[in-house]
Amino acid sequence: MSKNISDDDLKIWEEFTKNMNNIENKDIVYDKENFYKNRIYVLDLHGSTLLEANKKVKNCINLSYASGIRHIKVITGKGRRSKNFSDPYVSKDLGILKNSIPDFIKQDNELTNKILKIKSAEVNDGGEGAFYLLLKNFKE
Hints:
The protein is of the alpha+beta class. It is built from four helices and five strands. α2 packs across α3. The protein is elongated.
Protein backbone atom coordinates (compact mmCIF):
# COMPACT_ATOMS: atom_id res chain seq x y z
CA MET A 1 0.00 0.00 0.00
CA SER A 2 1.34 3.40 -0.96
CA LYS A 3 1.63 6.11 1.68
CA ASN A 4 1.61 8.85 -0.95
CA ILE A 5 -1.68 10.63 -1.52
CA SER A 6 -2.55 11.69 -5.02
CA ASP A 7 -3.33 15.33 -5.75
CA ASP A 8 -6.91 14.39 -6.66
CA ASP A 9 -7.43 12.54 -3.38
CA LEU A 10 -5.91 15.43 -1.45
CA LYS A 11 -8.28 17.92 -3.12
CA ILE A 12 -11.28 15.68 -2.38
CA TRP A 13 -10.22 15.37 1.27
CA GLU A 14 -9.70 19.14 1.65
CA GLU A 15 -13.11 19.83 0.12
CA PHE A 16 -14.72 17.26 2.41
CA THR A 17 -13.14 18.70 5.57
CA LYS A 18 -14.26 22.24 4.68
CA ASN A 19 -17.90 21.13 4.95
CA MET A 20 -17.80 19.41 8.35
CA ASN A 21 -20.96 21.28 9.46
CA ASN A 22 -23.02 19.02 7.21
CA ILE A 23 -22.00 15.91 9.15
CA GLU A 24 -24.44 14.68 11.79
CA ASN A 25 -23.20 14.66 15.39
CA LYS A 26 -23.32 11.00 16.41
CA ASP A 27 -22.92 11.89 20.11
CA ILE A 28 -26.49 13.20 20.24
CA VAL A 29 -29.06 10.46 20.73
CA TYR A 30 -32.71 11.25 20.10
CA ASP A 31 -35.78 9.71 21.71
CA LYS A 32 -38.02 9.26 18.66
CA GLU A 33 -41.31 9.51 20.61
CA ASN A 34 -40.53 12.77 22.41
CA PHE A 35 -37.89 14.32 20.18
CA TYR A 36 -38.09 17.87 21.49
CA LYS A 37 -38.90 17.04 25.12
CA ASN A 38 -36.35 14.33 25.81
CA ARG A 39 -33.27 14.99 23.74
CA ILE A 40 -30.29 13.31 25.36
CA TYR A 41 -26.70 14.35 24.85
CA VAL A 42 -24.09 11.66 25.47
CA LEU A 43 -20.65 12.87 26.50
CA ASP A 44 -17.92 10.21 26.53
CA LEU A 45 -14.86 11.23 28.57
CA HIS A 46 -12.81 8.05 28.12
CA GLY A 47 -9.15 8.96 27.67
CA SER A 48 -9.56 12.55 28.87
CA THR A 49 -7.39 14.09 31.53
CA LEU A 50 -9.18 15.70 34.47
CA LEU A 51 -8.62 19.21 33.06
CA GLU A 52 -9.85 18.19 29.60
CA ALA A 53 -12.86 16.44 31.10
CA ASN A 54 -13.79 19.46 33.24
CA LYS A 55 -13.68 21.74 30.18
CA LYS A 56 -15.73 19.28 28.10
CA VAL A 57 -18.34 18.92 30.84
CA LYS A 58 -18.66 22.66 31.36
CA ASN A 59 -19.03 23.28 27.60
CA CYS A 60 -21.51 20.42 27.26
CA ILE A 61 -23.70 21.69 30.11
CA ASN A 62 -23.66 25.28 28.84
CA LEU A 63 -24.42 24.30 25.22
CA SER A 64 -27.08 21.77 26.19
CA TYR A 65 -28.77 24.24 28.52
CA ALA A 66 -28.85 26.95 25.85
CA SER A 67 -30.10 24.45 23.24
CA GLY A 68 -32.94 23.15 25.40
CA ILE A 69 -31.42 19.71 25.90
CA ARG A 70 -32.42 18.62 29.40
CA HIS A 71 -30.70 15.24 29.74
CA ILE A 72 -26.98 14.50 29.54
CA LYS A 73 -25.39 11.11 30.02
CA VAL A 74 -21.75 11.52 31.03
CA ILE A 75 -19.61 8.42 30.47
CA THR A 76 -16.51 8.56 32.65
CA GLY A 77 -15.51 4.93 32.77
CA LYS A 78 -14.87 3.12 36.03
CA GLY A 79 -11.26 4.21 36.40
CA ARG A 80 -9.81 0.72 36.26
CA ARG A 81 -7.09 1.78 33.82
CA SER A 82 -6.31 5.05 35.58
CA LYS A 83 -2.62 5.78 35.99
CA ASN A 84 -3.39 7.21 39.44
CA PHE A 85 -3.17 3.76 40.97
CA SER A 86 0.55 3.61 40.18
CA ASP A 87 1.36 7.10 41.54
CA PRO A 88 1.50 7.21 45.37
CA TYR A 89 1.30 11.03 45.35
CA VAL A 90 -2.06 11.19 43.56
CA SER A 91 -5.40 10.41 45.20
CA LYS A 92 -6.85 7.11 44.05
CA ASP A 93 -10.38 8.46 44.55
CA LEU A 94 -10.26 12.13 43.62
CA GLY A 95 -8.16 11.67 40.48
CA ILE A 96 -10.67 9.34 38.84
CA LEU A 97 -13.17 11.07 36.56
CA LYS A 98 -16.22 9.25 37.92
CA ASN A 99 -15.62 10.88 41.32
CA SER A 100 -14.01 14.16 40.30
CA ILE A 101 -16.45 15.35 37.62
CA PRO A 102 -19.55 15.46 39.88
CA ASP A 103 -17.47 17.33 42.51
CA PHE A 104 -16.28 19.80 39.86
CA ILE A 105 -19.89 20.44 38.82
CA LYS A 106 -21.09 20.92 42.40
CA GLN A 107 -18.33 23.47 43.10
CA ASP A 108 -19.11 25.61 40.03
CA ASN A 109 -22.02 27.98 40.80
CA GLU A 110 -22.66 28.70 37.11
CA LEU A 111 -23.16 24.98 36.45
CA THR A 112 -25.15 24.21 39.59
CA ASN A 113 -27.63 26.94 38.65
CA LYS A 114 -28.38 25.00 35.44
CA ILE A 115 -28.67 21.52 36.97
CA LEU A 116 -31.67 20.00 38.68
CA LYS A 117 -30.13 16.66 39.53
CA ILE A 118 -27.05 14.45 39.21
CA LYS A 119 -28.02 10.79 39.22
CA SER A 120 -26.13 7.51 38.91
CA ALA A 121 -26.61 5.74 35.59
CA GLU A 122 -28.64 2.57 35.25
CA VAL A 123 -26.64 -0.65 34.86
CA ASN A 124 -27.59 -1.00 31.16
CA ASP A 125 -26.47 2.62 30.60
CA GLY A 126 -22.99 2.34 32.06
CA GLY A 127 -23.67 1.77 35.76
CA GLU A 128 -20.71 2.92 37.87
CA GLY A 129 -18.95 4.24 34.78
CA ALA A 130 -21.57 6.87 33.95
CA PHE A 131 -24.04 9.32 35.43
CA TYR A 132 -26.95 11.46 34.30
CA LEU A 133 -27.39 15.21 34.50
CA LEU A 134 -30.91 16.62 34.43
CA LEU A 135 -30.82 20.29 33.44
CA LYS A 136 -33.29 23.02 34.33
CA ASN A 137 -35.39 24.60 31.59
CA PHE A 138 -33.65 27.41 29.79
CA LYS A 139 -35.32 30.75 30.48
CA GLU A 140 -34.36 33.60 28.21
